[in-house]
Write a structure and sequence with these properties.
This protein is an alpha+beta fold. It is built from ten helices and 16 strands. The longest helix has 26 residues. The protein binds glycine and manganese (II) ion (2 copies).
């Protein structure tokens, strides 16, 4: 991580967080915004906690994503307060003292218990907005998670500050060697479990530190969109699909590569989808409606399926008929940031007017027009999914499919190619290809 760059850009980022928070407080007619870092959750009837996931509204302010029990307090015009939770706990390792480029911007106060927040409220509870999960009882009388506030905060998350962009570039840089290591392990014959370990080792994360559960899918498993297991036994090598990211400062990368063990028809299809994906990335720019790009993706995937001999219809006709949805059933992409599927993708404005996905593409997570410095994923795919192929076979579109070609390609599972892309007024920046061709 390039700490001087992050340090240089952090003050402007914090100032932006404060300005947005102030706008959100106006919407709620309140004076103080009090944001929980999140609390530990225990499993039912157990003394074991689930892996901690920080409140995204908190970690959008500062790079503390392993710190349950902390709080941020924003009051317009004042220095932000950080209640830094350092429990007196000899069963666990308490967090170290706060350190780093961000600390000087805060009035930092150590607390021993998250409930101490009530003693640090700058005004009456009734004039405070509390953001977090399971925190209602800690500040009785406060507004808790009001939609008017969430809409404002979620809306602005789409556009990234320079600091955030630096974190996201670094998160891509961190994941790139891990994708290469996964490919090497696959080509050496390793099973999914070992490929996953190779990925972790190369990016230096534990499982819990990853921004999302990695998808490590060999052969037919590549047809399971969010395949979640790790096969221990080696399999004959055909395809490896790895959808995995890395974290820097709480910001995610979300990258997919599909590799094949040899040449042939499926490897050609991977190459062609890679070209198609690059073409879509090149069309990312400020002003583009993401829904339009999603429709283009369907038409181009339809055309590629036709050229590969999978279907009979031309691209546009295949998309219009709904045929491409059987092979590409998810959205082209989504917003990315402190959450892998960042919020606000289906909002029309900061007031929270809904911008739902079109009826023919209900899985599209992002319906907004891209702005300068919006970061999205571009992740077209082609899959041979048993369940969907059964439905297709039973539909009136069955006659438009060359089934022997489908049967030939089915053992390879599927393909997804995913990059993280920044929209710019004059074009785009591919945050992923800078590190991983
Ligand atoms: N990693 C999940 C996705 O690509 O959306
Ligand atoms: Mn994604
Ligand atoms: Mn992904």
């Amino acid at each position: 991580m390039d700490t001087p760059t992050l340090a240089r850009h952090y003050p402007a980022h914090l100032a932006r967080c404060q300005a947005i928070a102030t706008e959100a407080l106006v919407a709620a007619e309140a004076d103080h915004l009090v944001i929980s870092a999140g609390l530990e959750h225990y499993a039912f009837l157990d003394d074991q906690t689930y892996p901690f996931r920080a409140n995204p509204l908190f970690k959008a302010w500062l790079p503390l994503n392993r710190h349950p029990g902390c709080w941020l307090i924003h009051t317009p015009g004042e220095r932000p307060v950080l209640l830094y939770h350092q429990p007196r706990d000899f069963w666990h390792q308490p967090p170290a003292d706060p350190a780093g480029y961000w600390t000087e911007a805060f009035d930092i106060r150590v607390i021993r218990d998250p409930a101490e927040v009530a003693q640090h409220l700058p005004g009456p509870a009734e004039r405070s907005v509390l953001l977090g999960e399971g925190v209602e009882a800690l500040v009785p009388g406060a507004q808790v998670n009001p939609q008017s506030v969430l809409h404002v905060l979620h809306w602005h998350r789409a556009v990234k500050s320079r600091y955030e962009l630096a974190c996201m570039r670094a998160a891509n840089e961190r994941a790139a060697p891990a994708h290469r290591a996964a490919r090497e392990a696959f080509l050496e014959g390793a099973p999914e479990y070992e490929i996953h370990l190779a990925y972790l080792r190369a990016c230096g994360h534990t499982d819990d530190e990853l921004p999302y559960h990695s998808i490590v899918a060999v052969n037919e498993h590549a047809a399971v969109l969010h395949y979640q297991h790790r096969e221990r036994e080696p399999a004959p090598r055909r395809t490896l699909l790895v959808d995995a990211g890395a974290d820097v400062g709480g910001y995610a990368s979300d990258i997919t590569r599909t590799w094949t063990a040899g040449d042939g028809e499926f490897a050609d299809l991977v190459g062609a989808l890679d070209d198609l994906q690059r073409g879509l990335c090149a069309e990312v720019r400020a002003g583009v409606a993401f829904g339009d790009l999603h429709r283009k993706a369907h038409q181009r995937i339809g055309q590629l399926l036709k050229e590969t001999g999978v279907i009979r219809l031309d691209g546009e006709a295949a998309a219009a008929a709904g045929l491409t949805r059987y092979f590409f059933p998810h959205g082209l992409g989504h917003l990315l940031g402190v959450q892998v599927h960042d919020v606000g993708g289906q909002q029309a404005d900061p007031q929270g007017t809904p911008a739902p996905p079109p009826e023919d593409y209900p899985k599209l997570r992002l319906t907004r027009r891209l702005e300068q410095d919006t970061v999205v994923t571009i992740e077209p795919g082609i899959y041979f999914i048993d369940m969907l192929l059964e439905e297709l076979q039973a539909s009136e579109l069955a006659a438009e499919v060359h089934w022997p070609v489908v049967e030939r390609l089915r053992p390879w599972g599927g393909i997804r190619i995913e990059d993280n892309v920044r929209a710019d007024a004059g074009g785009h920046e591919n945050l992923t290809r800078a590190w991983l061709p």
